[in-house]
Amino acid sequence: MSSEPIYAIGDIHGHLDQLDHALGLIEKDGGPEAQVVFLGDLVDRGPDSRGVIDRLEQGQAEDRNWVVLKGNHDAMFQAFLEEGELFHPRTKLGLSYLTSQMGGAATLASYGTDLTLSDPDDLHNNALEHIPYRHLEFLRRLPFWHEAGKLMFVHAGIRPGLPMAEQTEEDLVWIRQEFLEFQGNHPWLVVHGHTAVQRAEHHGNRVNLDSGAGFGRPITVAVIEGTRVWELGPFGRQPLDPGL
Length: 244
Description:
Elements: E1 6-9, H1 16-30, E2 35-38, H2 49-61, E3 66-68, H3 72-83, H4 104-110, H5 120-130, H6 133-141, E4 145-148, E5 151-154, H7 169-174, H8 177-180, E6 189-192, E7 201-202, E8 206-208, E9 221-225, E10 228-233, E11 236-239
Parallel strand pairs: 1-2, 2-3, 5-6, 6-8
Antiparallel strand pairs: 1-9, 4-5, 7-8, 9-10, 10-11
C-alpha cells in the first residue's frame, strides 16, 4: 500500500483552540494537502462546538483532504435537533443530553440558545432558531467509517468478526467492551476514539486516540504511514508502538 501519511485527530469535544493547534501541527509536518481523518465527537462539553463545526465545514468546502467521521455525541446532537431527543438508551441511566456529563448544554450555548428555558419543547424550538440548518445537514452527511488500505478509521470501534457491511451504526459510534477486550487480529489496524484514556494507546490490533479532550486533557494527533504510528507534537513525531 501507499506510504503516503494519514493524519488522525481524536475526539475534539468542542475545543476549537485545540483543533486549530492540531491542524497547525499537521500542516507543519505534512503540508496543507495532508490527508486528515477526524474520529468524531466533534461537539459537547467544550466551549465552542459551533466553531469546531464551522472550521471543519470550511475545510471541506475548500476541498481539503479531510474525512470527518460521526461520533456518538454528534449523533446525539443530531437527534436533539431532529427530534428534540434528550435521552439515549446507551447513556447512563437518567442522564439527559443537557447534563454536564454529556455536554449538550455547552453545545447549545455555543450557538446562543436560551438555556433558561425549562420546557423541553421551548428549548428545542429556541435551539432551532439559533443553529444554522447547514450544521444539521453537515451532521447528517458524516460517514461512520473510513477504510484506507490496512487501516480502518471509526469512532468507537467495530464488532469483531463482522464485515463492515454488517456493522450497525450504533456499534460504530457506541461499542466498548466487545471491541476493547478483543485481542485477536482484525482485517485492519483499527484507529478509533470514544473511550477516553490518559494518553493515546496502541494495542497491536487497534489504536485509541481519545486522550480525553472532553475531560480537560489535550487532543491527540497521530500520523500513520503504512501501519506505523507516531504521535505528533510540538517537537515532531514520537513513536506510538504497541504496548506503550
